[in-house]
Design brief:
By secondary structure, this protein is of the alpha/beta class. 26% of the residues lie in helices and 28% in strands. The chain contains three helices and eight strands; from the N terminus they run βααββββαβββ. The strands form three sheets. Strands 2-1-5-6 form a four-stranded mixed beta sheet. Strands 3-4 form a two-stranded antiparallel ribbon.
Length: 130
């Protein structure tokens, strides 16, 4: 099951502009479906963590510069499947584009995407190994 974690400045989540959080959920789900089949739509999870002002640093100093970090955790096999050799590059590109669709082109160069593979047998759903 693909699961996103987004770390972003709390202030970027404020406001009602069609709910920034809702936009992230929608756009990141669509990004995952560039690699996953449509049947996975209901399995894509998104968690958004707001980081308060003064608790974000880049380059050795605290900054208010918007620099979102998106982590996608997925079965490790996805990243090694012979039919999906391009999956990591496609996901990184699609995830970056999703963040830009929500926050604007000005953040593109500061979006960090991490793809984390979960080894087989180390995840489950509903109490069952998945």
């Amino acid at each position: 099951m693909p699961h996103f974690e987004v770390q972003i400045h709390e202030e970027a989540l404020d406001g009602e502009e069609s709910s920034v959080s809702g936009q992230f959920v929608k756009e990141l789900t669509e990004a995952a479906l560039t690699v996953y089949p449509e049947s996975f739509r209901e399995l894509v999870g998104v968690e958004i963590f707001g980081v308060p002002r003064g608790r974000w640093g880049v380059g050795g100093k605290v900054t208010d510069e918007l620099s979102p970090i998106v982590t996608l955790r997925s079965r490790e096999g996805l990243f090694h499947h012979p039919d999906l050799v391009e999956a990591p590059a496609r996901l990184i590109s699609a995830i970056t584009d999703a963040v830009v669709a929500v926050l604007g082109e000005s953040v593109r160069r500061r979006v960090t995407v991490r793809l984390v593979g979960i080894p087989a047998g180390r995840s489950g759903v509903g109490g069952e190994l998945a």
